[in-house]
Specification:
It contains 13 helices and 18 strands. The protein is an alpha+beta fold and 391 residues long. It has three domains: 80 residues, 2-Layer Sandwich (Dna Ligase, domain 1); 127 residues, ATP-grasp fold, B domain (D-amino Acid Aminotransferase, Chain A, domain 1, 2-Layer Sandwich), CATH 3.30.470.20; 151 residues, Succinyl-CoA synthetase domains (Rossmann fold, 3-Layer(aba) Sandwich). Strands 7, 8, 9, 10, 11 and 12 form a six-stranded antiparallel β-sheet that branches. A four-stranded antiparallel β-sheet has the order 1-6-2-3, covered by helices on one side. α2 packs antiparallel against α3. It binds adenosine-5'-diphosphate and magnesium ion. Magnesium ion binds next to loops. The site of adenosine-5'-diphosphate has 18 residues, from β2 and β10.
């Protein structure tokens, strides 16, 4: 689960990681009102969307007067912001963060995440932070310093010192002390809140020797939300695709994609394999949908309904392994959904597992023209055929 910058900064404040004074606002009037409480001009106004690359996309503006601030707020608010990370349709901005402008001396990069290959948390630090960090990682990865923190070792302040003292030129003693404190505090945030990512880019130093987090990104591990109620409450439903919101109500694991072949599968692994199969057939999946091992007839119906709400969908591929979910139950669910939603697109079904013969029979004998495949190969052929008809 992603947090907004303003929410992540609120958390940083609690953990004594310094951030600029700021307020969040949902209207132009509130932006102006907030500015009166914050040192300035200049002020910085920042679009609050779950995506990076806002600076380059015009979602972060400096305003030298109330008039400019009003103008910037008007231009950003209520419109989609299209950045490198939002996809072509962009993300509609409903909230702005107004901040004091900080006089930047150096822009550093600091982040903590899980290194999955080692199954350990890792801190990444670099003295070339800022808006081009992806480019730096690509062309000169040696500019990034990594320190792994094995779970059984726990925190050692030495790690923070090692990173901070890697800076060249070395900052003054106060800055160094503040920097090592911030690295330690970010580790605490990461561990205490079950983060999958905690990133500060840029982390800046000022001429006065202060170290301030100008940006803040926190992702919470979804699997830990059950024990992080306060974090789960920060979820912003406006950030989700409306179909994803709908799916979440029924505990369906649905992610919208850009293609035109809808897929309904049980089990995340099979869902991935199915997406590969769709791609190999020369098409693009319209979604990832895992209805779960123990899905009920109702969930199958809802899953199909959601796939069909996506206007791009030109064919549907249902690929189910009937373990806990029996194939005959699934077949009835598919039938019920097909009747309810008046499916007009071709539906390819591949079933395997418990009561598979019954399941296939139900589908084959129905008045609706399902294409029932007996195995993955045949399913792939049918998908290929459906693609050639629909594109
Ligand atoms: P993004 O990463 O989405 O582009 P940032 O929050 O990192 O957004 O802002 C982009 C750039 O804008 C930063 O690299 C920094 O140079 C500048 N910036 C952001 N906030 C402030 C601020 N409060 N004062 C001064 N400059 C800022
Ligand atoms: Mg940033």
């Amino acid at each position: 689960m992603k947090l907004h910058e303003y929410q992540a900064k609120e958390i940083f404040r609690r953990y004594h990681i310094r951030v600029p004074a700021g307020e969040v606002a949902g209207s132009v009037d509130k932006v102006i009102e907030s500015a009166r409480n914050i040192n300035g001009p200049p002020w910085v106004v920042k679009a609050q969307v779950h995506a990076g690359g806002r600076g380059k996309a015009g979602g972060v503006r400096i305003a030298d007067s109330l008039e400019q601030l009003k103008q910037a707020a008007k231009e950003i608010l209520g419109r989609p912001l299209i950045s490198e990370q939002t996809g072509p349709e962009g993300k509609r901005v409903t909230k702005l963060l107004i901040e004091e402008a900080v006089e930047i001396e150096r822009e550093l990069y600091l982040a903590m995440t899980i290194d999955r290959s080692k199954a350990e948390p890792v801190i990444i630090f670099s003295q070339v932070g800022g808006m081009d960090i992806e480019e730096v990682a690509r062309v000169s990865p040696e500019q990034l310093m990594n320190e792994h923190i094995p779970f059984d070792m726990g925190w050692s302040p030495f790690v923070a010192k090692k990173l901070a003292y890697g800076l060249d030129p070395l900052p003054g003693p106060n800055t160094l002390k503040e920097l090592t404190n911030i690295i330690s505090r970010l580790y605490t945030v990461f561990m205490e809140l079950d983060c999958s990512l905690a990133e500060i880019n840029p982390l800046v130093t000022t001429k006065k020797g202060d170290v301030i987090a100008l940006d803040a990104k926190i992702n919470i591990d979804d699997n830990a939300l059950f024990r992080r109620k306060a974090m789960a409450d920060l979820d912003d439903p406006l950030e989700k695709e409306h179909l994803e919101r709908e799916a979440a109500k029924y505990h369906l694991n649905y992610i919208k994609l850009d293609g035109n072949i809808g897929a309904m599968v049980n089990g995340a692994g099979l869902a991935m394999a199915t997406m590969d199969l769709i791609k190999m057939a020369g098409a693009e999946p319209a979604n990832f949908l895992d209805v779960g091992g123990g899905a009920s007839e109702e969930m199958v119906t809802k899953g199909l309904e959601i796939i069909l709400m996506d206007e791009k969908v030109k064919a549907i591929f249902i690929n189910i392994f009937g373990g806990i979910l029996r194939c005959d139950v699934l077949a009835r669910g598919v039938l019920a959904a097909a009747e309810k939603t008046h499916i007009k697109v071709p539906v390819i079904v591949r079933l395997e597992g418990t009561n598979v013969e019954d399941g296939r029979k139900i589908l084959e004998e129905s008045d609706l023209k399902f294409m029932v495949a007996k195995d993955m190969n045949e399913a792939a052929d049918l998908v290929t055929r459906a693609v050639s008809i629909t594109v």
